[in-house]
């Protein structure tokens, strides 16, 4: 699709982006990436372009990814049925080997390759590297599904300080060396908090937090922690949104300034959120008394 805009209009767009470029220059922005934005090849290309652009204007981007659909597909190819308990994948030893292979191998290195092909400088690591994500068994019924106990983000700082975009797969380990499948939203909340990130942007397959889950026009553009808790209590936040909003609250309680839940299916949603007045999705904050 060709957009017929004049050079003057292009200049106006860049001028409007200037204060946001100044605001984010040198700041850490953590992006949690997955879902439909990862499955669609066109959207994947656009997300990587957005990340490289942000990196080029001086934003310290950290990308954390999951890959549930690809794990399920690989298990199916291997003739292994996926079992679920309370919406979580049962992960025996064979499954956790596949999880590590798909997340830390195929997906992680594929994203590194894409970033590099678009002119960025990326380094792929997993939560096992440098013992970055330490975990214990979340529930005996789930096997090697981990609950994070601590994170050490020194490897991430080292990469950022050397000009790399760290790309992190959501696996962790314990002191005995067992590997655990880690929820990517949870990993993003812990890591963003430890980095004291300016923003955590979580890309999902819904518009944001909706007052009516079936009506996209009821999106809530901004919400503070107290209001979010009230929406839990009255049932407005339900189903699959519960863990996502819990991770937002967790991230803010750990020191992240603001968290955005956005629709990763929207082309260039990252740039709309970071470099325009319009924004994208729902912004969650401790409060909005200071507008930074």
Distance between the termini: 35 Å
From the 3D structure, determine the CATH topology.
Answer: Carbamate kinase
Morphology call: globular
Strand order of the largest sheet: 5-8-2-1-11-13-14-12
Residues in β-strands, percent: 15-25%
Helix content, binned percent: 40-55%
Rounded to an integer in angstroms, the radius of gyration calculated over CA atoms is 19 Å
Q: Mean pLDDT, nearest integer?
A: 88
Low-confidence parts: none
Q: Just give the CATH class.
A: Alpha Beta
**CATH hierarchy: architecture:** 3-Layer(aba) Sandwich
**Helical run tally:** 10
Structural class determined from secondary elements: alpha/beta
Total domain units? 1
CATH superfamily: Acetylglutamate kinase-like
Give descriptors for this structure.
alpha/beta, eight-stranded mixed sheet, Carbamate kinase, two-stranded antiparallel ribbon, 14 strands, 292 residues, 10 helices
What does this structure look like?
- The chain is of the alpha/beta class and about 290 residues long.
- It has one domain (about 25-285): 3-Layer(aba) Sandwich (Carbamate kinase).
- It has helices at about 5-25, 35-40, 40-55, 70-75, 95-115, 155-160, 185-195, 225-235, 240-255, 270-275, and strands at about 30-35, 60-65, 85, 90, 120-125, 135, 145-150, 165-170, 170-175, 180, 200-205, 220-225, 260-265, 280-285.
- The chain has an 8-stranded mixed β-sheet with strand order 5-8-2-1-11-13-14-12, sandwiched between helices.
- Strand 3 and strand 4 (about 90) form a beta hairpin.
- Helix 4 (about 70-75) crosses helix 5 (about 95-115) and helix 7 (about 185-195) runs parallel beside helix 9 (about 240-255).
- The longest helix has 25 residues, at about 95-115.
- The chain is globular, with a radius of gyration of 19 Å.
